[in-house]
Amino acid sequence: MARWTFYSAPGTCALATHIALHEAGADFDLVKLDFAAGQQQSPEYLRVTPKGRVPALATEHGVLTETPALLAFVAQRFPQARLAPLDDPYAFARLQELTSYLAATAHVAHAHKRRGARWADDPAAHEAMRAKVPQTMTACAAYLEDQIVGPWVAGEDYSVADGYLFTIGSWLEGDGVDLTQFPKLTAYLARVAARPAVQRALADAR
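^ that's the sequence the OP posted. Answer follows.
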C-alpha cells in the first residue's frame, strides 16, 4: 500500500483520525498546519482541499476529508486492526450514527465558541453563541454519558469512534462543562487517554 500523507493541526478534530491511523498501524507522513499563521488557507493547502480545513488524508486514490468518512475508511482499509464491526451492518451503522453526532452536533456546538462568524456577522450574535456553549456542550456530555455501555463506547470492542469521542471529550472542560456530573464519561476518557496510540498521536500533535 502506498504511503499516505495526513494533514492535521493541533487542537482540532483531526486528532480523531490521527489516533485511528496509529491504532491501525498505517504508514503515513504527518503535515501539521499552523492555523494561527493561516496555513490552512494557503494556496498550497487549498490545492489539497478547497475546504481549507483539517483533517485531510492524501491516499493513492485521492484526498479524503471529513472525520466520519476518514474513520470509516481507516477501519475498512485495515480490517485486521478490528477498529469497526465491519461484518455487522447494523453495528457499523450505529458506529456511524455516533460519529455523525459528534461531527454534526457536538463539534458544531463547540464551534460556536470561536467560530460564530460562520453563522452571523453581528458581534452581539457571536457573544450570544459563546454564552450558549456551556449549556449545549453539557447537553452533549449528558447524551454521551448514556452512550458508554462498556469499557468502550460501543461495548467490549475498541473502535475508531472511541478516538473521536476522546477528541470531543477533551474540549468539554474548556467549554464550561462540569465533568464531575459525568463520572462514567470522565473514567472513559481516562481509559482512552492511556492507550499507546492515543499517547503517540498526542505527542505527534505537539
